[in-house]
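Worked example

This section walks through a single chain of length 244. The input is the sequence exactly as stored; nothing has been trimmed or padded.
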Amino acid sequence: MIVRIVRVDNTFKEYGVIVGDSVVMINGHRILNVELKETKLLSPCEITKAVCVGLNYGDHIEEMGDKRPDEPTLFIKPATAVIGPNDYIIRPQMSERVDYEGELAVVIKDTAKNVPEKRALNYVLGYTIANDVTARDLQSKDGQWTRAKSFDTFLPLGPWIETDLDPSNLEIKTYVNGILKQHSNTKHLIFSVPKLISFISHVMTLNPGDVILTGTPSGVGPLDAGDEVTIEIEGIGKLTNKVK
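Given that input, the structure is written out below as tokens.
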């Protein structure tokens, strides 16, 4: 059964599920129905960490001038980077180039440690959309990625968690001001979702609510103040944010 899980600000921050054009929220012993258009959607995930995978599409490796990795290349974004749909991405003063990176994100359901690849999908709650916003000039300058990837507002997530989805063949598109910038499919991932979950869980414990960003395809590019970036993934929907 397909369930779309949302997190909304409805006086209190709470979870619900989408039914038609409404959000059904369970608040204690009461069930509340709120029109979706009248709610503020928050990031659907309350993470302890976002584990991100770099260089997981061949065409992106080519455009970045890197070599194809033998195993997943990992980095972490902090919880303080997370924002939700329609929140603003804020360009930091210390960076002169901030890029979008549209990605499929995996939401973890249960504590995962040393998970076999064949059982990895049992630990998945669902999937959402992520924008791995990156200060590209600082990434090149620093030689490692922590500062470039970790600014506040540099991890938009949303609009909801899709619980029943095959992650192996999903079309992914990124638009800036309505112009198509990225267009690919998750079938081109070098390391599959089960492989990533298993590999990461052998490195660190994944907690419920954590997300794995699976990598971005080619077409990454800069964002300027006033831009609007929309990432669309088949079977999930659209995540839109403006830039300050």
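What to look for: The radius of gyration is 17 Å.
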